[in-house]
Specification:
heterodimer, B: 57% helix, globular
Chain lengths: 520, 76
């Protein structure tokens, strides 16, 4: 079920109704049944994998919780008299915790690696082979979510879940199974398990968010996708500025599609009083690539920050390596060394998360390279800005930084979108080849979109920009709507629904699993 | 100790008013790169071992929280 399909709306409405009809104490059961029903309808053959991960993670978590509790009790009793032998025993306890974590992570990531990545390498080595492997719905999302849970338990952040059915809901919650966000247990679990009282505000705010998601996905994403696909599916037929136009179109498409889907998911959850975490914070307003990654696919970048970046950058081993290097690379770089390694690892993971093909690794490396370069050249860049008498606080400079970042991001997008790494390279090269005799203004109208389509796109993006601009200033749109005169509010909402019904793209790709992030 | 901490913080982010800040992490004023630099300096200056487990919001939202964090780490 695609998030924008008619069936999903019906399903979600039914679930919300059932939720509030169930006694509060058992509302989580309704969610659990709904989530498993959703999974069964979408991906019944692979349900077993999600169940396996759920069960193993749950029992592993319980074991960790047990060891943590024993450890705590032991410390409380013996704190004043810790001898060398006691400290050795404690160390042994830590080892057993590490073993539990290792087993669970290896199993979960092993399954992910086999189903999602192994398949690509085998088919690359043996073309034509059909392994018949299906990718479980949301496997990347729930695997990372389970890993976060286990590592948090290792870090004694909270208590282990004690109810396997409830934990099953945490792992399978249907609004987030399709494309995230990757939730943390201490942020989402309680909300899922406690039955929420009906509040009109939740219903309206949720519905408005769903409408907004539909607006972005059906009017903007699915429309610009037509011209993007035309160029990216036939790279040999296009050269010159049109290729860059398609690339920029993809930058719009992926943002509208992904954030639109997230809005629908969050909106559905909100109608039941559940606040899923944000995944996007107006990323194209970022003034640097680092900042961009704090605003784009936030749940993934926060995951890599907490479970890859911090552990590596704070690791004593890397710190020592950096110190040893100081004589050769200088004090500053020596100190930065663990951070640079951490950034490299982070973005390689982010790259690979998207897929097994080399183009995704290249995407990760592209981001890593730019960020690492920025870190290394920070003093020189600062000096250059001063020398050129640029006022770093001025609005013009901030706008320049945003446009520069947007350009960097757009260029990077070629790697994940092009058919392969080599195709990406040839598409880059083709941008500079001149338009082959056909003027751009003609070419742009031969990609499947009419002049009216472009006007609609422009108009919708303008609305989107204005809304983002106000959000960036701290204004909460739905609060602002709620405070408006009731007639005006309803006019706006009805206009919104009408726009989606009239200007939404309901073409051939509509019901198919053309939802970009669904394969994750 | 408090003065040394503020000195270290100002060295890393001269643009932040640390004395009066109440939500350095929650408000997004300190970013992951800042945290890593801060922890590195704390570990060196106070001879402690602050690790990933200690990287919770509560420990870095205010200067007082950081003072407490380091004091606790010195006891271990």
């Amino acid at each position: 079920m695609a998030l924008t399909s008619f069936w999903f709306l019906i399903f979600a409405a039914a679930v919300v109704l059932a939720y509030y009809l169930t006694p509060a104490k058992y509302r989580w059961v309704t969610l659990l049944i709904a989530s498993y029903a959703f999974y069964a309808v979408s991906s019944i053959k692979t349900l077993i994998f999600m169940v396996a991960t759920t069960v193993i993670t749950f029992y592993g978590g319980r074991r960790l919780g047990q060891i943590n509790a024993e450890h705590k009790a032991y410390l409380a009793e013996h704190k004043s008299e810790l001898s060398r032998d006691d400290k050795k025993e404690l160390k042994a306890k830590v080892q057993s915790r590490k073993k539990v974590v290792a087993v669970i992570l290896i199993f979960n990531f092993g399954v992910l690696a086999f189903l999602k990545y192994f398949r690509v390498y085998i088919t690359a080595l043996i073309p034509g082979i059909n392994l018949g492997i299906l990718i479980p719905l949301g496997i990347s999302f729930y695997t990372f979510q389970a890993a976060a849970y286990i590592i948090d338990l290792y870090r004694v952040k909270y208590d282990a879940d004690d109810n396997i059915a409830k934990f099953g809901l945490f792992m399978s919650f249907f609004p987030q199974i399709i494309q995230g966000p990757i939730a943390r247990h201490d942020q989402l679990a309680t909300q899922l398990y406690e039955g929420h009282r009906f509040e009109y505000k939740n219903l309206t705010y949720g519905a408005q968010l769903i409408l907004w998601g539909f607006f972005k996905k059906l009017i903007i994403a699915d429309r610009v996708a037509i011209m993007v696909s035309e160029v990216f599916d036939n790279p040999g037929d296009y050269q010159g500025a049109i290729v860059f136009a398609a690339l920029f179109g993809y930058t719009i498409q992926i943002y509208a599609d992904f954030s639109g889907g997230i809005d629908i998911a969050r909106g559905v959850a909100r109608t039941m009083g559940i606040e899923m975490s944000h995944n996007f914070m107006r990323p194209y307003f970022a003034d640097s690539l680092s900042e961009f990654w704090r605003r784009w696919h936030m749940s993934l970048s926060f995951w890599t920050r907490d479970y890859i970046f911090y552990p590596i950058s704070l690791s004593k081993t890397f710190g020592k390596l950096g110190k040893d290097m100081r004589s050769r690379v200088g004090d500053r770089v020596g100190k930065l060394f663990p951070v640079l390694c951490a950034q490299m690892a982070t973005f390689v993971v982010i790259g690979i998360w998207h897929g097994a093909e080399f183009k995704y690794v290249a995407y990760g490396l592209y981001n890593a390279f730019i960020i690492i370069l920025g870190l290394l050249l920070e003093p020189q860049l600062k000096a250059a800005v001063e020398k050129l008498h640029i006022n770093a606080e001025s609005r013009m400079w901030k706008v320049f930084q945003m446009l520069r970042t947007l350009m960097i991001v757009t260029i990077g997008r070629m790697f994940p979108k092009a058919a392969s790494f080599t195709v990406a390279l040839s598409m880059y090269a083709s941008i500079f080849k001149g338009n082959g005799g056909v003027p751009f203004s003609e070419q742009i109208l031969q990609l499947g979109l009419t002049g009216i389509d472009y006007c609609i796109l422009l108009g919708a993006c303008a609305v989107w920009f204005v809304i983002s601009f106000y959000q960036e200033k701290g204004i909460k749109i739905r609060d602002a709507l709620a405070e408006m005169n009731i007639v005006l509010r309803w006019v706006i909402l009805i206009l919104g629904v009408t726009a989606v019904l009239v200007a939404g793209i309901y073409g051939p790709g509509y019901d198919a699993a053309a939802f970009i992030y669904r394969g994750f | 100790m408090r003065e040394t901490i503020i000195e270290i913080l100002k060295d890393i982010r001269s643009d932040i008013d640390f004395e009066n800040a109440t939500a350095l992490i929650d408000d997004g004023q300190l970013e992951s790169l800042d945290i890593v630099a801060i922890v590195g300096e704390f570990n060196e200056e106070f001879d402690v071992e602050i690790s990933v487990e200690d990287l919770v919001h509560e420990n870095f939202n205010t200067v007082d929280a950081m003072v407490e964090l380091i004091s606790k780490a010195q006891e271990d």
